[in-house]
Amino acid sequence: MKEATGELNMTVVTLIAIAAIGALFYFFVWPMIQEMIANQTCKTYGTDYRAVKVDENTSTGTQATAKVWQCCRGTTTTDCISISD
Fold this sequence. Notes:
The structure is a single chain. The chain is of the alpha+beta class. The radius of gyration is 21 Å and the shape is elongated. The protein has one helix at residues 2-43, and strands at residues 49-57, 65-73, 80-82. Strands 1-2-3 form a three-stranded antiparallel beta sheet. The chain is built from one helix and three strands, in the order αβββ.
């Protein structure tokens, strides 16, 4: 019985570790990967373009918004080209 309890504890520890690694990837690593891909895409428009994540109204008649990447020239967000995720 004692061995079964120890194996159960190791299973719980393993599941928590896997969940922690998944959360770390999802919240920290994946956004950095997306930003690097968006920046590389923006470089094809010119060296003065940079990737900016902005809110965009995705459907008319609702207040639903989504974060999308755009390539903007310089520091302004008025001269931007929308790119897909």
